[in-house]
Automatic annotation (TrEMBL):
Cell inner membrane in keyword set: no
Enzyme Commission no: 2.5.1.97
PROSITE patterns: AFP_LIKE (PS50844)
Database matches in CDD domains: SAF_NeuB_like
Keywords: Transferase
Protein name stated in the entry: Pseudaminic acid synthase
Organism: Paenibacillus residui
GO terms for MF: transferase activity
Enzyme class (EC, first level): transferase
Protein's gene: pseI
Record keyword Cytoplasm present: no
Domain of life, per lineage: Bacteria
Amino acid sequence: MKDIRLGHHWVGANHPPFIIAEMSANHNQSLDRALSLVDAAAESGAHALKLQTYTADLMTLDLEKEDFLIRSSDSLWKNRTLYQLYQEAYTPWEWHEPIFERCRKRGIIPFSTPFHPLAVDFLEQLDVPFYKIASFENNDKRLIQKVAATGKPVILSTGISTLAGLAETVEWLREAGCQELILLKCTSTYPASPEQSHLLTIPHMKELFECEAGLSDHTQGIGAAIASVALGATVIEKHFTLSRSDGGVDAAFSLEPQEMKALVEESERAWRALGRVHYGSDERESSSLVFKRSLYVSRDMLPGDTFDESNLRSIRPGYGLSPKYYDLFIGKPVSRKVEAGTPLSWDMLGSRQAD
């Protein structure tokens, strides 16, 4: 797989994980707060800030019929209508330009999730460098084709999609012109539990669909996100807020600035730790030989003296022959004068012994 360029960053196995701070509804209907979120995301080291582009009228109907009520007992939004939720959560479209400008000024990449083809047209006017398709919209063929037709990279969350459904969505994207795709494992509960995360899906998706893969994480904390790096996640998305105590639609499962900073730092540390398949020591580990065992002469010896338990020991440091050669020396004469504290070597037998 070739690397994918997202704005001024590259995504792929050869680069640190790409971290997205998801503003979502955490602006709490204040543009000043939204701009403060941009500043905080930039200072945390996040690479991109994501908005959501919709209106309540483009999402659903303003009805209180049963179908339009949120009834899940464990939902943060229980007993509200879908329209009420989206009316509170949406980001006014006139805010997008100042938010994007602040992002670019602070060196963080702005982009968005469109929820309707009209939102794609709007975002194209703002020169969005790539798009995200939300998990609950990944079955909307018309929207998906509209996004793919821009020719820009697409990040897509899996959510509750079956494997067959996801394969169909990927096919729509690629047929409509998407050549750079990143799939994010996503659990569509808010917040999600670690047990629901199923991170082992990440390498499976990457291999099956021959694309980059990552995690859209709704768990609390950063543990699941860091673990995903070890499984090949190259993109991590987390909801972001100034303070969970400020409340808001998404606050309960959002990271605060110091946590986002920790995610950026620890995900890169985890990525660097992956390294390659490697055994033995490298240059920087050579000094650790002082702590490894090897064979040392423990008493002064004269030519002809015989090696035995009193003058040959397996001790630290590790600069002598391996302890596995101990029995080859016991009972044999030493070839020359040797002082106590000398690392054992083959020439003390007069000739090199076979392993």
